[in-house]
Design goal:
The protein has 239 residues and is of the alpha/beta class. The protein is built from seven helices and seven strands. A seven-stranded parallel sheet has the order 3-2-1-4-5-6-7, sandwiched between helices. Helix 1 crosses helix 7, helix 2 packs parallel to helix 3 and helix 3 runs parallel beside helix 4. The longest helix has 29 residues.
Length: 239
Amino acid sequence: MHTDRVYVVTGGTRGIGAAIAQGLRDDGARVCVLARQPDPAEGVAVDLADPSSVPAAFERVLDRWGRIDGLVNNAGISKVGPSLDYDLADFARILDVNVTSLFACSQAAAKAMAAQGGGSIVSIASMTSFTGQPERAAYIASKHAVLGLTRALANDWGPHGIRVNAVSPGYIRTDLTTDLIARGVLDVDAIEGRMPLRRFGQPSDVVGAVKFLLSAEAGYTTGQALVVDGGWTVNGYFK
């Protein structure tokens, strides 16, 4: 499906991003990982907390890989804390990584795609793009913004043959969530009991959604958010 395509995956060195990058490689694609410390053989180093560094990073991508068929905006950060005392510098840094750099990456990739005649951009949003949670003001604001950008850029770049979509994951089994479960921060029984599918997601659930939106099978789909959350956001009932 993706043979000989070139895909850029931000934050692709761990967690869901690493799973996405490997899943695309398994399909025969060439994958460039953008991260602070990627394997030099597989990526380009960039600090997405500094959005001004993004254009030069994409120049290096094009110099080395020659083209960009798809971009997966996966990089994101968060910090939990009461909003009455939330540090403004932390708030700004989260928005820089999750929103401003996401736009900068999308813009840089879209310029290359427009010159090639088209491409596909998929951003990793969140089920909290549709909801709220306590003590995550910056993260949730940023993930709402990701959906707004997805819809805006789909309008702007559709005439260039560029599709822009999002995947909104829920609770996914990663090293981070496994650690939170082990420390008692997440209650697995309570979470799974509320989900219609009664299970945490696996990285493969997100990978499959991303692959679909990148592929020709989604060729008439743009400006959409594919929610991969086991039904969490459609269940308004609390036992």
